[in-house]
Amino acid sequence: MSILEINQLNKTYSNGFVALKNIDLTINKGEIFALLGPNGAGKTTLISAVCGIVNASSGSILVGGHDNVKNYRDARRMIGLVPQELTTDAFITVWDTIKFSQRLFGADYDPEYLEQILKNLSLWDKKNNQIRTLSGGMKRRVLIAKALSHKPDILFLDEPTAGVDVDLRKDMWDQMRVLRESGVTIILTTHYIEEAEDMADRVGVINGGEIILVEDKKSLMKKMGRKQLTVELKEPLDQLPSGLTDYDVQVQDGTLTYTYDSLREEFGVDDFLCTLHDAGLKYKDVQTRQSSLEEIFVELVKR
Amino acid sequence: MNINGILAIYMFEMSRFRRTLFQSVASPVISTSLYFVVFGSAIGSRIQQIDGISYGSFIVPGLIMLSVLTQSVSNASFGIYFPRFSGTIYEILSAPLSYLEVVLAYVGAAATKSFVLGLLILGTAYFFVDMEIQRPIWMMIFLVLTCTTFSLFGFIIGLWADGFEKLQIIPLLVITPLTFLGGSFYSISMLPPIWQKISMINPVVYLISGFRWSFYGKGDVSVGLSLGMILVFLLICISILSYLFKTGYRLKE
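^ Those are the sequences you sent over. The predicted structure of the assembly is below.
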């Protein structure tokens, strides 16, 4: 079931910059969707258009079936946004700021719920601190707490772990999973590929304002995944045996590296190893490696 | 209508007022007291009565207007400019609030502050001069209308400004001179005829005149004209704002 539908969305800024081109995107309820793209690809503009911070030039956005322009109140109530920049007030306390957010979105003040959010985000002991006294990582969590304060159905995280250390990043990923368990749909933008690889159910790649691809993460990795088979030989090789010239093989000292497409039937691992055997080559060790999402991504963006 | 949302912004803005209560209250009270000491006692004792009112009492409505106008503009402009500057505006824009509700909250808070301030200055004035307010209800109406109108005006400036300097420019270069030349400290009838005519294009003349009428029953222009001019100015501000919102000016690309 879809919770967000973007149809033929275009955005051209007043200075003529075309930020989004004919974006079509459907997000399923309850999934974690990662939007990948290099800097300036249009990730933030896309999120801003959905949240009502940027006016789209054309196209439509349905949030839970509500048009985000005609029916903006119902649409926006369903959304929580964690912006990329650490934009917080300085002088008010953590508690006051999340209380403010809760009521801003039309919800009634619910201290028990706010307490629970702060505890989940390990901010409870900071509730009476002014925001300016917090570290960057804590401010980021305050922004998440603000976004969650009105119980949104969709949570947008714009580069949530930028500038957050490794420990805290893992923590945040765990929290995202807990949120997803509770039924919240999560859309995150990132250029940390490992983040998408680790968390996302589906991945979308945006470049130059266009969605290049939307794919289930596993099938994307399977489809695009190049595999490499590395064979360490017992004795160094001067020249490729004739049977191996058909394969995409590189020789370096005593190591053969064979790059292949895991989906293709011909020239599979089995054939390759048989050919090695037939050529009378003995090997010490065999290793395979699958390309990461990052390599896939770089390849896609280059095209 | 998102009442919770409006109240959230309103209370947030008022809490800034409370946090800086001393500056917010002390500075206008001190400066007004100084005006009374200098103009009311030192110089005023040598000035004849104006329209049968002692000079000290005569300047009270003008002094209140002087503070209310500048404070309305600077409070409201700062209120909306600061989140634009710091980036926290993202939350207001993504909230389920209409533009009207956003304006109600920000302008309501700014107008409340300057209204409270106006009453404080009035209270301070009681310590220095004898005065009576002949038409207290009209006085309140003029005060509320002025606070609202100039807070709207300030809100527009806060949208227009793209730097802190611009926030200062209008109160400093426009509001203060217009108020000083608008009859805060004198009656327009005391001016040479040519300056009387020129003064009539100063909108603040009408505000001060109407306000003074509610105190002493006399003004430079008729009370109907005063009220009419405030309402015209209010309408102009509302029209500009609704036009700005239609285009998303400085808030949304």
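The mean pLDDT of chain B is 88. Chain B touches chain A at residues 2, 4-5, 7-9, 12, 15, 19, 86-88, 90-97, 248, 252-253 (CB under 8 Å).

Shout if you want it in another format.
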